[in-house]
Design brief:
This protein has two helices and 15 strands. The protein is mainly β. Strand 6 and strand 7 form a beta hairpin. The relative contact order is 0.22. It binds protoporphyrin IX containing FE and 2-acetamido-2-deoxy-beta-D-glucopyranose (NAG) (2 copies). Keywords: Signal.
């Protein structure tokens, strides 16, 4: 009984799916925004990434409201993908990777998958990367961007919404290999390893001064 329990735990660890999510609030010195912060530890807790979101208090469930998001990810990954609807197919996919030059520190590609194959471009959601909060060091890279079109979409004609006053299941996946054209958001991207999931609390990212704070940020590039 005990032995089989340990074998089960071992099997989980070997699959690398034993991710731990820590949910918190993050007061960001770079942008002045307060983010809802999901901190995701994975691969025997040796790696982590952070996903953070902020929105205006006026955002309502049923709106296609803007968010500012922030991602911190290890230099060791080739790309990180986040699926706003909690699965690969029929929802907005964000694919981010570290850029090839200091002038292009990070890229975010807006994608959509109709099936379990390479996602195509998804122009209904778009990303504006900000200078503030976009940087890297020896271990991690970070990107801060506004997304228009990430909080609502149509799944085969059925409208879907992220409730800004609640939690949402987000799916994620990554590859250790880089996109073949790292300077191009339309690059081909290699297949990922085992996907994973976490519940992200959007309500914590409500910012009273959202509009004025975001207006002060400078667009990169
Ligand atoms: C690069 C091209 C991609 C290919 C060829 C691909 C292929 C696949 C395949 C074959 C599966 C099924 C695997 C299984 O059931 O064991 C799968 C599952 C999954 N993929 Fe991808 N994928 C790609 C990109 C992405 C991206 C960019 C994301 C997220 C942003 C993503 C998220 C997921 C998730 C969450 C699952 C779990 C099952 C599901 O939710 O449908 N994939 N993928
Ligand atoms: C490296 O950069 C990441 C992303 O900005 C940051 O979270 C981390 O604390 C930094 N590490 C060090 C040692 O400064
Ligand atoms: C970005 O997406 C939003 C929401 O779908 C849309 O209203 C806007 O026109 C898009 N902007 C660009 C430049 O594509």
């Amino acid at each position: 009984m005990i032995a089989s329990l340990w074998l089960g735990v071992l099997a989980l660890l070997l699959r690398g799916v034993c991710a731990v999510t820590i949910r918190s609030k993050y007061n960001d010195p770079d942008t002045g925004l307060t983010f809802s912060w999901s901190y995701e530890e994975y691969i025997l807790s040796t790696s982590y990434f952070s996903f953070r979101t902020a929105q205006a208090p006026e955002a309502q469930n049923g709106d296609n409201y803007d968010i500012v998001l922030q991602i911190v990810a290890p230099n060791s990954i080739g790309w990180l993908g986040l699926a706003f609807g909690g699965s690969m197919v029929n929802n907005p996919l964000l694919v981010a990777w570290k850029g090839p030059t200091t002038a292009q520190p990070a890229l975010i590609s807006s994608r959509w998958a109709d099936g379990h194959n390479t996602p195509k471009a998804y122009p209904e959601a778009n990303y504006t990367i900000y200078k503030q909060g976009t940087k890297s060091n020896n271990t991690h890279w970070q990107v801060t961007a506004r997304c228009q079109g990430c909080t609502s979409w149509s799944n085969k004609g059925s409208p879907k919404y992220i409730n800004p006053k609640g939690a949402q299941r987000i799916a994620w996946a990554f590859s250790t290999s880089k996109p073949s054209q790292p300077a191009n958001v339309n690059s081909a991207i290699p297949y990922h390893g085992t996907p994973n999931y976490f519940n992200h609390e959007f309500s914590t990212g409500s910012n009273t001064n959202y509009v004025t704070t975001v207006q002060k940020l400078q667009v990169l590039g």
